[in-house]
Amino acid sequence: MKKGILSIGVMLLSVFLCGCKEKIDLNSYLDIDVDGYDTMGTASFSIDYEDIYEDYEEIFDKGAKGEFEELLEEFGIELLLEEAISGELSESSGLSNGDEIEFEWDIDAGDIEENFKVKFVYENVTEKVKGLEEGTIFHPFDELQVTFTGTAPNGELELEENFSVSGLRAKADKEYGLKNGDVVTVTLQGRYGDDVYDVCFAEGMIPSETSKQYTVAGLPAYIEKLSEIPKSTIDEMDRQVRDEVTAMVNGWAEKDSLANMEYLGAYLLIAKPEITVSGSQNQLILVYRNSVKNTEGEFAYYYYISYSDILKNADGTLNCNLANYTIPKTGGWFSTGTTFTHGSYTYTGYETLEGLYDTLVKAYVAGYNSETDITDEKWEDCKKQFVAEKSTYVCNRIIAGAAATEELAGSYYTDEILKEAKSLAATYYEQEKLYAKAYALFGEIGNAEKAKEMVALIYEEAATLSVKEAYERISVIAEADRDAEKTALIEEAYLMGQFADAEVGDVVLFGDYEQDNNKDNSVEAIEWIVVEKSDTEVKLLSKSVLAVMGYALNDVRWEMSDVRAFLNKDFITGAFNTQEQEVLAVNTVKAEKNPQPKYYDGDPGVDTEDKAYILSYSEYEKYKNVNGVTDYVASATAQQKSYWCYTWLRNPGGYVNGSMALILQSGLKGVANLNQNKMFGTSLPAGVRPVITIRIAAETVEENMDEVTVDNQAVTE
C-alpha cells in the first residue's frame, strides 16, 4: 500500500516537473439513453461525476489555493464538477428509429484545470436512435364524451370517460360558470399522478393527442342586453302593466284620475359573472311616468313592472313567463313598492325617478351590472319637477350631518341642486356662527368673497379658544387662504400647549421618524417619556433607540462628536416640521467626566448649547427611576433592524483612551470603542436615544399670543 502511494506521488511529481497535465476523457463518463416507442421516443443523458472523482481521487484530494480553495471546502469537488461540466442533446422527445441525435458538451472548467493541473478532453457525440418498439396509436378523445348542460352563464361541463387504456383520466381547465362561446381545454392525465405517456406506453399504446379544445354551444342563456328582447315582447309586457294600472285607477276616489301613462324606458339588471347572487340572474324593469289629476292639481309619479330570469333559447327564441311579474304593491306581510302622500291623496309607486332608480337598480349594484334606454332628456324632464324643493331637502340633510359626499351625489341631485343647497346651508352656518363649516361650503360652491369673510371670523374666534380648539378651527382653512403669521402663532401655541397637562412618567407623541425599517410605509410617530416638567418647559427622553451609529471618529469630547452633529442637524430637520422646531428649547448640556474611577479619566470638553443631546451618567441615574423608565427600557427599549441596542452616554470612559460610556441591556454601565458602532467583543450595536426640551404654554391661544390682527383691527390679549 505504501509503495502504491509512493508511486502515485512520484508520478504526480514527474507530471509537475515536466509541466504536463493529467488528461481526463469526459466521453468515457457520458451515458446517453433512449426509451419509449417509435415516433414517441425520449432521450436523456447522464455524466458520472462520482466516477470522475473516484478515478482521480489522488489529484482532487490534494486541495487548492486562494479563492478556489474556499469554494472547494464549501461545495466539494463533485458539485464543482457538475457546475463546470454539462451538455445538451439536440433532440430529446418525439424520436423515431433512425433519427440522429447529437450531444454537445458545455464546459467551463478553467478554474478546476488550473488548480488541479488536469486537462479535460472531450468531443461531441452523434448517435442513431434504434431499438424503439412499435406502438399502437389510439385516439383518446374519440373515447371521451363531452357534454355541456345548464344555463349560460352558469353552464357546466360533464365528461364521460371510456378509455381503452386503463389508468387515464380527463381533466378540464374549466367545468363551471360556462357560457356559449367559451373555450374549454380538456387534458389527459395519469389517474394516479403518473405521466400520461408512461401510462400509455405501459400498454403499448401511443396517444394521438393529449389535449383538445371544445367550444361551449347550445346552452340556453340569460339575456344580457336590452337589444336581445324583441319589441313584440315589450309590447306584451306594456299591455299587461296598463291593464294593472287601469284596474288600480278604478278603485281611486271619484275626483282622482290618471291623465296620462308614459312609457319612459327600461332597466336591465344582469348578475355579475364573478359574483354568485342568491336571487334571479337578470331582471327587466319597465318604467312609467303616471300623470295624475285631482282637486289639488296635477303632478307625476313613477311606476314599474318587472320580469325575472328571462332566457334566450339555443334557437334564438325568448323564454319568459309573462304571467310571473312584479308591480308596486304595499300592505300585508310583504312590500314590493313604496307609498307616498301627495297633498290629501296617497299613491303606490315612487315620488321621483331617482327614488325608483335607487330602490330597484342602485341598491343592487354590488351584485348586478345594469343597462338602460331611458335617455338623458327624459331624466332631465323628470328632475325639473322637484328642483326647488330638493334644494331645500338637501340643505336640511347637510345641516343634519349628511356632508356633500356620495350620499348627496346621486343622479337626481344635479350640480345645480347641490350648489343651491350648499349655499343655503352655508348661510345657515354663518348665522349660527359655525364659521368653519360655512367656510368649507362657500369654498365648495366657489363663493370666494364669502369664504374670505369666514376666514377672518375663524381667526377672530380662534383667539378666544383653547389651543387645541383653535388649532382645529384653522385646520379647515386651505393653505392659499391662510394668514401665515396668524397661523404660525396658533400652531406654535398649539404645539406649546399640547403637553401642558402631561405628567412626569407619561409617554407622549411628538415628531415623526423612520423606526420600523420599512421605507415602503410612512414614518412613525416618535414616543417620548416625560422626565422633567416645569411651568415653562417639559423635558422628553425618546422611549426608543432612534439611530445606531459610532460616537465619533477620534475625539471623546461631546462637542466634537458625530452623535451631536447628527442630532442637531439631520435628526432635528428630519423628525420635526418647521413649527415643531420652533418650540424646541435650547439646552445647556454639561460636560461631565466619567464618575467611575476605574475608567479612563478623559477630558469631557466644554458645555454646549444644543436642541437635542444624549444622557450622561448622572442624568441616567436621575431619570431611570422615573415612572415608566426602568433600567431595561432606559438601556434597550427599541429594536433597530432586529438588533437589541446598547445606548450611548456622553461621558468619556473606557479601559483605554478613545472609548465612550454606554448603558448595557441589563442596565449596567459599560464602554465601547467610539470609532465603531459595536460593543467590544460583541455584535450588538450601540444606539442613540435623544433628549429634547419643549417650551410649553397655558391653555388658550389668547394667553400665548401678544396680538392677533383680524380685519386690520388689533385684538389685544
- What global shape is seen? flat
Unreliably modeled segments: 1-18, 331-335, 632-643, 678-682, 704-717
Biggest sheet overview:
5 strands, antiparallel
The helix content, as a percent range, equals 25-40%
Q: How many domains make up the coordinates?
A: 5
DSSP strand (E) fraction? Answer: 25-35%
Provide an overview of this structure.
- The protein has 717 residues and is of the alpha+beta class.
- It folds into five domains: 20-128, no CATH class; 136-219, no CATH class; 222-374; 395-486; 507-695, no CATH class.
- The radius of gyration is 43 Å and the shape is flat.
Task: Name its key features.
single chain; 717 residues; alpha+beta; 5-stranded antiparallel sheet; 5-stranded mixed sheet; 20 helices; 39 strands; 28% strand; disordered C terminus
Give me a quick take on this structure.
The protein has 717 residues and is an alpha+beta fold. A five-stranded antiparallel β-sheet has the order 24-25-26-37-30. Strands 27-36-33-34-35 form a five-stranded mixed β-sheet.
